[in-house]
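Self-study notes.
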Amino acid sequence: MSKPQYRPLQLHHKTGELFLRLPSPHDSIIITPPRMSDAEAIISYMNDPALYYWLEGPPFPYLPEHADYWLKKVKEGTDAAIAELDRANAEHPDGPPVIVSSCPVRCLREEREDGSDVFLGDITFIRERWPDLEDKELKESLAKPNAERPIGHPDIVWCIGDYIAPSHHGKGIMTAAIKTLMQEWAIPRMGVRQIRVETFTDNIGSRRVFEKLGFVYEKTNALESRFLNSGRRIEGMDILWWKAE
């Protein structure tokens, strides 16, 4: 896409969506905005024990109304991100890419030979909210100023939320996808300079993904009485950081 304010996003020739493509050997994977038609796949994944075992936020069991609510909510976010790029393009059509507040693409899809694609998962960059802290006042004292910092401020602490279909676990796709989003969008287009992530202490795979990306383990925070919506008790979270050099 030649317009500077949209770079490095491409425009899909078939769907008309903005997207990023992963590098080889995962170049059949693209990252796009969400679609309401993703609901069926999401419901299937969220009710699979190989996935919900590791997720804290989603309801369980995961019903069609949950998928519709989530898709409408995240679609509002990506639509707003695209509108932000449209405004930047109108105001600075030939200028260097401006710093923006969020990423317009987040949904992983695998392209098939017939031109169709399959929804695989989701990655999002959000401002950190310190979910591992059980002291509400301390959490608020950190999260509130972090949410109020202006777009592109180097002191913003970011976090990453992600999941991928169980059928595609262990293939290196999530590592490649997060790396692509960090290098191609979060760092140059959002001004991201520090990211704090939390992984359940028993989720070795998730921790390894971030360590491969240069995240450094800081500590483990024990949790006294944290239960997932599926009923599983979480004993603690490992905290890892990435910081720009």
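Second protein, same conventions, sequence then structure:
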Amino acid sequence: IQKRWRGYYVRKYIHNYYALKKYLEAISVNNEIVRNELQEYAEMKENEDKRKDLEKKEKEKKYQARKMHYLLSTEQIAGIYNSPFRKSPDPMELLLRKSKPLIHRRQQIKSPFAYELHDWPTCRRPLTFSTAQLLPPIGRQKPQGPFRDTAEVLRQRYKPLEPTLRVAASINSPLEKAREEMKKEEWRNRIHDNEFLPFSLYHKNEKYDPSIRRSGKYGQETYGIKHFREVQPKKWVTDK
């Protein structure tokens, strides 16, 4: 009876085959739904990345076309993208025709001789003469030659100081630093500020207070002051 009851109880409440099968089927369905959603998200992300790459390439291509607009063909001379041996011009030639040339704006330099009325001296401001000469303007174009990038040069110039071990070390010796630290520790941990005095200096001005046994009317005993051994001449064998 116990064996049959144990088998029935295990199959119904502990290891139910039909409940486990239903649970596994629900997990498989859920996994399939999640897999489909992830696949759709991956495809959407891939399409978006492709669209961004195409837009970036198209923008770069238009910028290069504006930058190289001088390669456009003229009525007399054909450009490098419009070869006479080709049946139709290159797509770059068509893009050059549609795009506008890139204009390099130069910074306007104010003439030092263009004075205005408010620049003239008044009674409140004395007349001053400028002795510094104006420096020539620095061109924005990169000079031809094996020169480094401007950003890299500025980064190296204004980088933080990294001193060596000899420069970063203190001038004072480690022994003096240890003494200073020990003095600070002693000053921080002491209980009172009274200076320690030796025994001879501390009791120099104090009056001696004798004990009750030695300050009585019967006087002081000689034992311990004049001698440390009792002397009894009556018990001597010989006279010494």
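Instructor comment on the second fold: The chain is about 45% helix and 0% strand.
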